[in-house]
């Protein structure tokens, strides 16, 4: 799998996992404790499950407004076991959680049944999460309150790497993409997508200014 496909894949996984902002929760409260079935309405999805003694317990389904779906299990208020993400066009991902933390192996399945495996490793002492893919790619990120938040570096197996920042699970703010030949691209992320002007400085000294709109290349600024 080439660099472009990997980058698109990682961006998509980040969006489905972490981009929710809670707008409303519908649940019965008895003696100050949430109990029974609940519905959480987020800006981009709806979550349904059950509270027992004030904690989410059992199967939980999250349906994205864009057609995606997530099926997970909660034990004592935390994710536990296998979580399955159903993306569009027949794609899906399987992750494993232990006590609310992503751990172990995860596998992404393409629509054509081919797969890309990766493994999560969480360091509780310094709140870092490392995800490594079977093709040699790796990302080191900051993991706070069960989501990626803060500085991160994504390393491609071909020698390229990118420094970026996560806010509430989405890439936001300045990034620096360094190619294996020394070329450097600097720009901005907005809501997990490249946006605006990016400056590319080639190893031979030549400089280009390009434009991104909604994460896609939209042209070049001529001198």
N-to-C order of helices and strands = HEEEEEEEEEEEEEEEEEEEEEEE
Mean pLDDT: 85
Strand content: over 45%
- Please count the helical segments: 1
- CATH class placement: Alpha Beta
- Rg over CA atoms, rounded to whole Å, is 19 Å
Largest sheet: 23 strands, antiparallel
Give the name of the CATH architecture.
Alpha-Beta Complex
Number of strands: 23
The poorly predicted ranges are 1-19
CATH-defined fold name:
Outer Surface Protein A, domain 3
From the N-terminal CA to the C-terminal CA, the straight-line distance is: 35 Å
Question: How many domains is the backbone divided into?
Answer: 1
Shape: elongated
Broad structural category: mainly beta
Percent of residues in helical segments? under 10%
Describe what this molecule looks like in 3D.
Mean pLDDT is 85; it is low at 1-19. Helix content is 7%, strand content 63%. A hairpin with a 2-residue loop joins strand 1 (22-30) and strand 2 (33-42). It is elongated, with a radius of gyration of 19 Å. With 223 residues, it is mainly beta. The chain contains one helix and 23 strands. The protein has a 23-stranded antiparallel sheet that branches. It has one helix at residues 3-18, and strands at residues 22-30, 33-42, 45-52, 55-56, 58-64, 69-75, 78-79, 81-86, 92-98, 101-102, 104-109, 115-123, 128-133, 138-144, 147-155, 161-167, 170-171, 173-178, 184-190, 193-194, 196-201, 207-213, 216-221. The chain has one domain: Outer Surface Protein A, domain 3, CATH 3.90.930.
């Amino acid at each position: 799998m080439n660099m472009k496909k990997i980058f698109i894949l990682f961006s998509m996984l980040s969006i489905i996992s972490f981009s929710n902002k809670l707008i409303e929760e519908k649940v019965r409260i008895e003696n100050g404790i949430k109990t029974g079935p609940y519905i959480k309405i987020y800006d981009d999805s709806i979550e349904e499950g059950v509270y027992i003694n004030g904690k989410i317990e059992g199967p939980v389904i999250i349906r994205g407004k864009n057609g995606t779906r997530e099926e997970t299990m909660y034990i004592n208020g935390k994710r536990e076991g296998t979580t399955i993400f159903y993306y569009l066009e027949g794609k899906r991902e399987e992750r494993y959680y232990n006590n609310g933390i992503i751990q172990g192996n995860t596998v992404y399945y393409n629509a054509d049944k081919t797969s890309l495996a990766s493994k999560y490793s969480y360091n509780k002492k310094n709140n870092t999460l490392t995800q490594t893919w079977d093709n040699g790619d790796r990302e080191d990120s900051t993991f706070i309150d069960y989501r990626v938040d803060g500085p991160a570096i994504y390393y491609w197996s071909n020698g390229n790497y990118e420094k970026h920042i996560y806010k509430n699970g989405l890439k936001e703010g300045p990034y620096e993409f360094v190619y294996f030949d020394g070329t450097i691209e600097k720009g901005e992320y907005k809501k997990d997508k490249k946006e605006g002007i990016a400056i590319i400085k080639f190893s031979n000294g030549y400089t280009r200014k390009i434009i991104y709109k909604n994460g896609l290349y939209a042209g070049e600024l001529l001198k």
